[in-house]
Design goal:
202 residues; alpha/beta; Nucleotidyltransferase, domain 5; five-stranded mixed sheet; globular
Length: 202
């Protein structure tokens, strides 16, 4: 398994905004080998478009390595890297402090992913009006994500409205709904949010 770590000159985990060096390690059952290294120059000062391009270039260089360790990741960095299918870890310190832990955790997740997945489908509460308590699903099954629960339905089903009860609005809604010709409206509730997803009819 390969794990990429963004580090500063002193060998500590750095932020994507500050830049540094991406070091890729091959980790197998306690054996850690440094594979390759590349300077990562931050594009934070150049705007969103430049950030996206720099992350795509980084993704190409990393190749099959899809585990990335940084000190923190949020905003556009999180959105782009999630879209590029990275498993992101927020850590501090030096690689020897956490690489074995990440390796074991990733291995456990991959083994879990190979098991048959339970399918959670929204229930029809009216004519082509569906509802799902996303918060309850995620709390009951740590092996699923909001994307795994909702995207199969959004991609294949015809509906007038899908109501999604959630503790927080999934970030990917902003990027994934528009290409599917869908729009959303969010209502704050006492215990979270209710998102209504409907076809974006012109």
């Amino acid at each position: 398994m390969e794990i990429g770590v963004l580090m500063d000159q002193e060998g500590h985990v750095a932020t994507l905004e500050s830049g540094g060096f991406i070091v890729v390690y091959a980790v197998e059952a306690g054996r850690i080998v440094k594979e390759r290294e590349k300077e990562y120059i931050s594009a934070a000062h150049a705007g969103a478009s430049a950030i996206r391009e720099s992350l795509k270039e980084l993704s190409t260089w990393l190749g099959a390595c899809r585990v990335l360790v940084v000190r923190e990741v949020n905003g556009i960095y999180f959105t782009v890297l999630e879209g590029l299918l990275f498993n992101m870890w927020e850590m501090s310190g030096q690689p020897r402090d956490f690489l074995d832990y990440i390796y074991k955790s990733e291995l456990a997740e991959r083994e879990k992913a190979q098991r048959p997945e339970k399918i959670y489908a929204p229930v029809e509460k009216g004519r082509q009006v569906y509802f799902i308590d996303l918060e309850a699903v995620l709390n009951s099954d740590s092996g699923v994500t909001s994307k795994k629960v909702l995207l199969p339905f959004l991609n294949t089903e015809s509906f007038k409205k899908l109501e999604v009860k959630c503790g927080h609005v999934p970030r990917w809604f902003a990027n994934e709904l528009e290409p599917l010709k869908l729009k959303s409206q969010t209502e704050k509730t006492d215990d979270g949010y209710l998102v209504s997803i409907t076809p974006d009819v012109l």
